[in-house]
Amino acid sequence: MNCLSPSILSADFSKLGEQIRLLDEAGADYVHIDVMDGSFVPSISFGCPVIRSIRSCTERLFDVHLMIDEPIRYIRDFAQAGADLITVHAESCRHLDRTIEEIKRQGVLAGVALNPSTPVDLIRHILPKVDMVLIMTVNPGFGGQELIPYTIDKVRELKQLLNDLSLKTDIEVDGGITLANVRQVLEAGANIIVAGSAVFRGDIRQNTESFLSVLKEKEVR
Length: 221
Fold this sequence. Notes:
By secondary structure, the chain is α/β, with parallel strands linked by helices. It has eight helices and eight strands. It has helices at residues 16-26, 48-54, 75-81, 96-105, 150-164, 182-188, 197-200, 204-220, and strands spanning 3-6, 30-36, 61-67, 85-89, 109-114, 132-136, 170-174, 192-195. Strands 1-8-7-6-5-4-3-2 form an eight-stranded parallel beta sheet. Helix 4 links the parallel strand 4 and strand 5. The longest helix is centred in the C-terminal third of the chain and has 17 residues, at 204-220. It starts with a strand and ends with a helix.
């Protein structure tokens, strides 16, 4: 199933609750929440208090992307704040397997993310344990970047590896996704689409509906 996960990193923070409700009403499947610590990535963003405060705005799945060093320290906190899916970076975990196990222990879905230059094969052995793999299509840390072309090949490679292992794991893409290139990443094998600027710049409801129309069209085919 193809799903849209709008990234609230591009939202107007002074109207965050209202804009999340707009996503909900327009039919967005997930809400993507980028947590950045200023260490693993240059920027600093949301923490548990913000996630907890917006949890009441929607029942949509909270797709929490931890771009932080050694995220195992905070898994329980994010789960209790309202995360439904927690994704950690393979590059930021000293013990990735243990971190994934901790996410599962908290009763939420587990994802693993790869930066653009990190090879897919790095996570081969952890794939049976995760619910989703996130391929970063830009270098993480800032919104509004352009998609790095070779990352589409990584999506294809990951899809083939999952097929070889007989796994139905979701593939998410994040970074520079627009209505102009979303079909490419869907055709490569992605089924969860993160979009920030392309959703929040302009008419949020209309942009969301436009993405969902493409996702539905590709699903039917």
